[in-house]
Write a structure and sequence with these properties.
Layout (H helix, E strand, L loop, with lengths): L11 E7 L6 H9 L7 E8 L5 H14 L3 E7 L7 H10 L5 E4 L5 E2 L3 H11 L3 E10 L5 H9 L4 H4 L15 E3 H7 L11 H11 L3 E13 L11 H15 L7 E4 L3 H9 L2 H4 L2 E6 L2 H6 L1 E3 L10 E6 L7 E3 L38 E3 L2
Parallel strand pairs: 1-2, 1-4, 2-3, 6-8, 9-10, 9-13, 10-12, 13-14
Antiparallel strand pairs: 4-7, 5-8, 11-12
């Protein structure tokens, strides 16, 4: 108790937006109860116009949680339509009072040690978003994505911010100080179809924030057709990524090469702003059929004459590169092109096609 008999503010607030989550809430809320964190905790729930039995389940668990010493704060609205994940998270944060914020989705569940281990990391890294490894349910639902989440090296948490999966630590694993969140946030409240996590993550990086992952599986990360992430179009994510690439990387380069003369590389070229397109000096590839074409003509351009960009064998190309490859490949990190022999079967077992190292800055956009 603080002076005057008022209870001390909780150390960690678990932030839980809820919308029609009755199928998963019992497991989710049980995982809050089972945390082995020895500091004080609260659960801040915001009900975003649920029409199912979510509120009945929450009220039942409120009694159990508060009997165990975990304060429960409940807010929400019963409008005809939900306001969206960004709005719900902001409201849950606003009604909470913990010094640290632990984000949790209502269809996921935490391992007992999650709050304890991520709090320890957040204390050591006060301006970082702390993530963790995950256990995907069902296990075979997104195998490549799950490997990407769990296997990025610590330096890749920053070097791979332009890849297609979005934040390099996924939103349901986030943990950070309230002070840092207030410095960066709030979340975008545009509603359905807005990648509020990616937009916050980019703002976090702009302000010099770090990215840290606890290398233990601390979250059951559920995949199902009703997940909010499915409402975000791939084209929306692509546009945000390209704009962030143009903001953060391309201004440092007077010219660059796009590695991949195929569909993905041409898509990047067409997506760039005119100023960035003019910096593209070539495409490069290993496919002889593409190389024989000699150039790519941007027919939709309003420029006259229409831009014609050379297509070169990768050995004839000059760095720096933006590499557009499928995520099954190995990637470029820290200024060198690394071994990419599994990018294309034509690279296998060929001394001629073994990639050499370029002492340059290269970025992967996949």
């Amino acid at each position: 108790m603080e002076a005057g008999g008022q209870p001390a503010a909780p150390h960690v607030s678990v932030i839980l937006p809820v919308h029609n989550a009755e199928a998963w809430l019992d497991e989710c809320l049980r995982s809050v109860l089972q945390q082995d964190f020895e500091g004080s905790m609260e659960l801040s729930v915001f009900n975003d116009a649920s029409k199912d039995k979510s509120m009945t389940i929450i009220e039942k668990w409120k009694v159990k949680l508060e009997d165990s010493g975990i304060l429960v704060v409940i807010g929400g609205h019963d409008s005809p339509s939900p306001r969206g994940v960004g709005y719900s998270k902001n409201q849950a944060i606003a009604q909470s009072s913990g010094s640290y914020l632990c984000f949790l989705d209502s269809d996921d569940a935490m391992m007992p040690q999650r709050v304890r281990l991520q709090h320890e990391a957040a204390v050591r890294h006060p301006t970082s978003i702390i993530g963790c490894q995950v256990r995907r349910e069902p296990p075979n639902s997104t195998e490549r994505y799950t490997r990407w989440i769990n296997q990025l090296a610590s330096d890749q948490l920053l070097t791979q911010v332009f890849t297609s999966h979005g934040p390099t630590v996924v939103m349901p694993t986030w943990f950070c100080s309230r002070e840092w969140f207030s410095h960066v946030g709030p979340f975008d409240e545009g509603g359905q179809g807005v990648p509020e996590d990616l937009l916050f993550f980019y703002s976090h990086l702009r302000k010099g924030g770090g990215v840290v992952r606890v290398d233990q599986s601390l979250l059951i990360y559920r995949y199902h057709p009703k997940a909010a992430t499915h409402s975000v179009l791939e084209t929306t994510i692509w546009t945000h990524r390209v704009r962030f690439l143009e903001e953060r990387a391309l201004p440092h380069w007077a010219a660059f090469t796009i590695w991949n003369a195929g569909r993905q590389g041409r898509r990047l070229y067409r997506s760039l702003m005119a100023e960035s397109r003019r910096k593209v000096v070539a495409f490069c590839d290993v496919d002889e059929n593409k190389i024989k074409k000699g150039f790519y003509s941007y027919e939709d351009s309003e420029e006259r004459p229409k831009p014609r960009v050379p297509i070169l064998h990768f050995r004839a190309a000059r760095p720096p590169f933006v590499i557009c490859v499928k995520l099954a490949a190995r990637f470029v990190v820290a200024g060198y092109t690394q071994q990419i022999t599994d990018m294309d079967p034509r690279w296998q077992n060929s001394e001629e096609n073994k990639p050499h190292r370029h002492p340059c800055r290269s970025l992967t956009l996949s």
